[in-house]
Amino acid sequence: MDRKYIKKFARGTLKQNFLVIVLITSIPILINIHSALQEIDDLSLLKFFLVSLFIGILVSSFHPFIDIGILKFNRNEPFSFQKDIIEIFKTHGKRYILTMWLREISILFWSLFLIIPGIYKSYSYTLVTYILIDNDDLSYKEALSKSEELMEGFKMDWFIMDLSFLLWDILALFTFGIPYIWLTPYKWTTYAKFYDERMKLLSNVKVSIA
Length: 210
Fold this sequence. Notes:
By secondary structure, this protein is mostly helical. The chain has one domain (about 5-25, about 50-165, about 190-210). Helices cover about 80% and strands about 0% of the residues. It is built from 11 helices and no strands. α5 runs antiparallel to α6. The two termini are about 20 Å apart. Residues about 205-210 have low confidence and may be disordered.
């Protein structure tokens, strides 16, 4: 997976559609800024755990609807808030939100044993939102299984890509979270492009086999 190309492409998409992408990612941006300002030392371990769980579920509820727009921008397709967000929420909202909640619960379950299994599962399920968007007929179980299948052999690519944002994240912690105004849309656009590139690789394999 060409990480440099993926991130360069994402920057290009973000540059062309910056205001709209910032608007549709405004909720995760605000949550990230709030997290950067939060004094973790002031929270008990249990409270911090519960707050993190609540934030994870909250963000996951909006995740698919944000990614619809970002996928369209990456694919150079026309985007309409009414058609692509409101209407899809009416027809697929329940399936999207239920699947994302189940993903969060599954990751939490694995994290209760050890941190590493939780991280492993989070990477396994990281493509669920895009799969749901591109496949209207899949159930939540099928979407989770499909994500696991697609991420087989690509978790390290995702980990390295995540790691490449680390300095930005550290900078945000020391600058009141302000860089998240750019960083959050940049990450989400990069992740969506990763999915498209993964699907291209899958298509190439199928063509080669045929």
